[in-house]
Amino acid sequence: MTDTTIDRDKLRDIYTRTMRVARADEKFRSLLMTGKLAVIYYTVRGQELVSAAAMAALEPSDYLVTTYRGQHDQIAKGVPLNPLFAEIAGKVGGTCRGKGGSMHITHPETGVMVTTGVVGSGLPIANGLALASQNRGDGKVTMVCFGDGATNIGAFHEAMNMAQLWKLPVIFLCQNNRYGEHTAFADHTKVDSIVTRAKAYGMAGVHVDGNDAIAMYNTTKAAVDRARAGEGPTLIEAMCYRMMGHFFGSDFSYMPKEHLAEMAAEDPLPRLRQLMLDHQFTEAELDAIVADLDAQMDAAAEFAANSPLPGPEEIRKDVFEEEIAA
Amino acid sequence: MTQITMTQAINRAIDEAMAEDAGVILLGEDVAAKQGGGVFKISSGLTEKYGENRIRATPISEQAIVGACVGAALAGFRPIAEIMLMNFVTVAMDQIVNHAAKLRFMSGGQTNVPLVIRTTTGVGVGFGGQHSDMLEAWFAHVAGLKIVTPSNAADAQGLMRAAIACNDPVIFIENILCYGLKSDDPGPGHVVPLGKAAVAREGSDCTIVTYGRTVLDALEIAGKLADEGISVEVIDLRTIAPYDEATVTASVEKTGRAIVLHEAVKQYGTGAEIASRLNEKLFGKLKAPVTRIGGAFSAVPMANALEQAWIPNKDAIADAVRTAVNWKG
Ligand SMILES: Cc1ncc(C[n+]2csc(CCOP(=O)(O)OP(=O)(O)O)c2C)c(N)n1
Questions:
Q1: Which element (helix H / strand E) includes A66?
Q2: Contact A320 B77 (CB under 8 A)
Q3: Best of A74, A181, A250 to mutate for ligand 1, by most ligand atoms within 8 A of CB?
Q4: CB distance from A161 to chain B under 8 Å?
Q5: Is the model's pLDDT at A2 over the cut of 70?
Q6: This prediction's pTM
């Protein structure tokens, strides 16, 4: 049984991280709907809490590897909003000078080392970051986030085996949002739970309700402690739900309406708010946090809008260490 | 003067780099002492010196090997991945072309991948279709990868040192048939810079641009043709991508004729790129068309008779030079 108690400051921290993710997502959707932004956007609606609680259990210096649908992970890990917004808008003030975009965010200062658009390919790379920490003895833990669909790719299996073989300080966080693009979990995977796959590699595996802030935090914290103590990797299967289509604006008629309604009842945002109230946080206190965040979102959107577009000379830079000829 | 084999040379380069920098690690199948120090013995003796944390024998998991090296490189290490045979890079293509090659660019220069992927191949040992391919053109087509191949032991040592020191990913191709080649010992600390070709033999009538094992063929042919009064210049590229265009162009400008020779299949190969660039640079100055010689357009056959027919034939190379020299237009 995971611990069901939590420190009040940690709870406030999780709430703030969750709402930062949620308000940023809301802001992006509104920018897209009003035509102020025209980019492909993988909304994280429904998965905000999973990463907020997970990242709250990491140190800022720990490494993170994530995927195209990783904005919640990046924001929760601490990537500053101004360059993040600018990167998604393809501006030179972005984290990657507009050369990465939402699917390829990198921000080493906050530990975000790779965001990949190739399903499942982050896991082997996370092993390498963890291997470096193991050899150096720097005490860092690497977390890699991916979806349920990613667990059917060969890289997942190779990486799980290698991580357990070498007892790497890595945490595999599967955010099981029940869909891989248009394919429902039961239509792409024959086992009931991804945790079964951890067992197949002799690895610790935990199944957790990703919309339960306390369970999600404590589960992650236990995995982090294990990894730091040299006890090896953990696979966490965090159950959540992708409340919209694969990318924002895409058709999601393949998601049964009854199931959507059922899942709406588990929406992590009202549930977290209730938990906060149960822990004697006041409505006013919670609203103030959100109001402050909304001001930050407006500022970030403005920063992105005002940031210049990258010039064509950027194409010759960063191909190699030395600039290539025109 | 003492001599050194290519196997010893590569081993020494890795050994020197590991002694200098704790961030140099080697990952691959069978590479540690327990497994005998690698199928071609390149890592022989290294586990005893540097331990199993730095010489890591891996499961048969090419994606995980290259991926782990990419991750370690991002964390500031200088990993070396051994992919036992070049055909098996197919298994790790995603990590190589989508990640190793592109992370510097996609991150806007915030991260980089100082990784060496060592691999081995070669036609002429009877390994057949899935263990003999020369796939350098695949990688040369991807922005962000450097591709290196030595033709002699001394260069192998120096190029390996440079590859490990390079801050970009390098594919280092070792030809199985060259492992036993001996050079005069260049001594410790020998470095051959990446991107610099060598004029392996000077000549004035025709240039053969080549790399890897076929440099030996080109030198042998140049010796024979000298007896016929034809003077052949041989350029050993050493770095296939990005290649030393200045040295190649200067040589062909001097001789007016060029043949690009490689063991990889001719179609869509690196020879096409070099021939085309020579045309762009030297159109009007060439005394004969630039031609290419490469492997046949089939899988590499197993039977020795067929394998020898597949590989660029020395008589055909000599004939190509004669044709170029006698070209009447
Ligand atoms: C190797 C690979 N195959 C296919 C795709 C196309 N694709 C993009 S997202 C996706 C679904 C992935 O589902 P999951 O891993 O569950 O992640 P989620 O989008 O649910 O977060 C697919 C098939 C891809 N990007 N990479």
A1: strand A63-67
A2: no
A3: A181
A4: yes
A5: no
A6: 0.97
